[in-house]
Each structure stands twice: as C-alpha cells, then as structure tokens.
Write a structure and sequence with these properties.
Layout lengths: L1 H21 L3 E7 L2 E6 H43 L1
Antiparallel strand pairs: 1-2
Helix pairs in contact: 1-2
Length: 84
C-alpha cells in the first residue's frame, strides 16, 4: 500500500512541477481589505497545497487522538465492570 501511495504522490508532484514551469505569470492575492500580495501563480498554488497538506495532517492527528481517548475510556469501563 505504501508503494501505491508513493507512486500517486510522485505523479502528483511531477504534474505540479510541470504545471509550475508553465505558469510563471504574477497573480494577486487579496488577504484582507487593503493588503494584497503579488506572486507567481505556481508559488501561490504551492503555498495553497502546503497549507492544505498541513491542515489534513492536523485533522488526521486530531482524529487519531480522539480514537485513542475513546478506546482508552472503553477499556477503563470494561475493567471497572469486570472488577464489580
């Protein structure tokens, strides 16, 4: 399964690199009223993908921690019921 994930990620990164080579025009990002940033479209996409990846990772960590806490509570309930 890890090899399949690696191939998919590699193909995605290769496609992004080829897309970046072709899109070097400047784009404007309006952050808040009165504040705007100019950067190449490829850099803007790279930042957006990076932020999306970080947010997806944080969400997966959060759900994993919730599962650990939930399973720990279940184990404690079963142990308490077993003692009584």
């Amino acid at each position: 399964m890890r090899q399949v994930n690696f191939v998919i990620i590699f193909i995605f990164c290769l496609a992004f690199a080829l897309f970046s080579i072709e899109n070097t025009e400047l784009g404007i990002i309006h952050l808040i009223p009165g504040v705007e940033v100019q950067a190449p479209i490829s850099i803007e996409l790279l930042i957006a993908l990076g932020l999306g990846g970080v947010l997806a990772w944080l969400f997966s960590v959060w759900t994993h921690l919730e599962r650990l806490i939930w399973s720990g509570q279940k184990v404690r309930q079963k142990m308490f019921a077993f003692r009584n």
